[in-house]
Amino acid sequence: MLFNSLIFILFISIVLLIYPRLRLRQQNLFLLAANYFFYGWWDWRFNILLFASTLVDFITGQKIHKSDTEKHKKRWLLVSIAFNLGLLCSFKYFNFFMDSTAALLQSFALEPHLPVLRIILPVGLSFYTFQSMGYIIDIYRGRLAPETNFVDYAVFVSFFPQLVAGPIERGGHLLPQIRSKRELTRGKMIAGLNLVLLGFFKKVAIADTLAPVVDNIFAMPDVMSSGQLWTGVYAFTFQIYGDFSGYTDIARGIALILGFELIENFNAPYLSRNITEFWRRWHISLSTWLRDYLYVALGGNRCGRERTYANLMITMFLGGLWHGAAWHYAIWGVLHGIYLAVHRMFLGGEKASLSWPRTIPGWAADTAKIIFTFHLVALTWILFRTDSVSNALVYMERLFLFQNMVDLQASVIFAACLLIALDGVQVWSGSHTWLTDRHGVKITRYAVAQLMFVCTLAAAIAHFNKITPFIYFQF
To answer: What is the dihedral of CA 373, 262, 165, 146, to 10 degrees?
Structure first.
C-alpha cells in the first residue's frame, strides 16, 4: 500500500477515526491489525514472513536474557542472526550469489547449471530484519531488556508508518512509547500534518516531477549529450533525496499524529562539508545501525589505522549490498568506503561538525566544501541509478566529454533550489516542523504552507494516471 495512493487515504482515515477512541491495550491490538492489513495489501503471504521474524526474535530475546552463561547467550544470538540473515539471503541474495558464481565459472570456460529461485522480494524485508536484529543485539549486549508482551513487540516490528522504508527504529526508543499511554494532542496533530505536507511536497511535487527526466536520460545514456547527462545526475540526486526524505517525513508525521515520535532520518545532507558529515546526515537510521552493529563489531577504530580503513570498507561494501543484490550497489558502497577512508586518512583531524560558521571567510570556505562534497556524492548516484556497472561506465565516460553543456534543464535547477531552500530553512530554524514553530512571521509560514499544498495537489493531478512508487520500497 503506497502512501501516495487513494487506498492509503481511505486506510489512514479509518485508522484515525477508530484509533483515538480506544484505550492503550485496545490501541495496540488495533495497530497490530492495521499493520498487518497495510503490509498484506501487497501480498498476504508477506505477513507470514513478518510474523515468523517477529516470533523468532521475541523468543530468542527472552532466551538471551534468561541465559546464565555467555555461551548460551551467544548461541541464541546466532539463532536469531542466522534466521534473519537466512531470510535476507533466500529472498534477496540467493540469485545474486548464484549468478555471480555462474559468471565466475564461465570465465574459466565452465558451463555451470546452478539453481535459481523464482520468488519476489518482500517489500521492506531489509528494514524490518535490521530492526529486529538491532533489538536482539542490544539485548545480548545488556543495553535493553526484552519485551515481555508479544503484542507490543509485534507492533514494534510491524509499525506501518516505517515498516517498509524506515527509519530503522531502536527498541530502546520505540518500545517504551508502545508500552505507554500516548498523548494525542492538537500540537502533535498539527506538527504531524506539517511533516506529512512537507513529505508529500518533496515526493509528489519534486521527486515525481523529476522522475520522467531521470528515466529518459538513464535509459539511453549512449545517445545523450554531456549536458543532458549532467542534468540526469543532478535530477536523480535530488529525486532520490526528495523521494526518500519525503517518505520519512510522511512516516514521521503519521506516527506523530498517532502519538509516536520516530527518529530523524535526514538532516540537510546536501549541505554537508565532508563525506563523514554527509553520512551523519543521510539515512541516519541506517548509517548509525551499520556503525553500531557492524563497524563496531568488526573492531571499529580500536585496532590500528589499517584495520580501521578495512572496517570502513567492509561496512560500506555491505551497506551497498544492503541496498540491492547487484554489483553496482556494492561498488557504490565501496566508493563511499574509499571516500570515508581518505577523509579519515588525510583530514582526520577535521571534525565533522554540524555547527555553522559566523564569518564571511568561514562561509566561503564551507560553501566550497559543500559543493565539492555534493559532487562526490552525486557522481556515485550514477552507479546507484543504473542497472549495471557497464552502463554506469558508459554514462561516466560520456559525462566527462563536456559536450553541449547548455542542455542542462532549468526545471532540474529549480527543483534543486527548492530542496536546498527547504533544508536551509530547516538548518536556520533547527526544526523539521518549522511551519508550525514560532520562527518567522506567522502569515509568511501560512502562505508557504498553502503554496506547498497547491503545488502538491497540482502535481498529484498531473501524475494521476501514473503513481510513482517510493524508490526505497525496492530495498
So the answer is: 120
323 is catalytic: yes
Helix 24-40 crosses helix 150-158 at what angle (to 10 degrees)?
A: 40
Q: How far is CA 338 from CA 319, 342, 368, 445, 465, in A?
A: 13, 6, 21, 42, 42
Q: Where are the alpha helices (DSSP H) in 386-471?
A: 389-399, 410-429, 442-462
Which one from 323, 328, 343, 432 is the annotated catalytic residue?
323
Residue that has been written with the C-alpha cell 521474524 in this structure: 53
DSSP 8-class letter at 401:
T
**8 Å CB contact between 59 and 132:** no
One-character DSSP codes across 289-343: HHIIIIITTTTTTSS-HHHHHHHHHHHHHHHHHHH-SSHHHHHHHHHHHHHHHHH
CA–CA dist 371, 375 (Å, integer): 6
Q: Are 259 and 182 in contact (CB under 8 A)?
A: yes
Q: Give the confidence band of 396 by pLDDT, cuts at 50, 70, 90.
A: very high
Instruction: Give the 3-state secondary structure of residue 267.
Output: coil
For 39-48, write each residue's pLDDT tens digit: 998 888 889 9
Among 32-36, 253-257, 350-354, 439-443, the range scoring the smallest mean pLDDT is: 350-354
At 266 the three-state DSSP class reads coil
- Per-residue HEC secondary structure of 64-120 comes to HHHCCCHHHHHHHHHHHHHHHHHHHHHHHHHHHHHHHHHHHHHCCCCCCCCCCCCCC
Query: Within a 13 Å sphere around the CA of 406, how many CA atoms are in the beta-carbon half?
Result: 0
Residue 316 to residue 339: CA distance in whole angstroms: 10
CA angle 279, 285, 289 (to 5 degrees): 90
Find the helix or strand (DSSP H, E) in which 284 lies.
helix 284-290
CA distance 201 to 460: 10
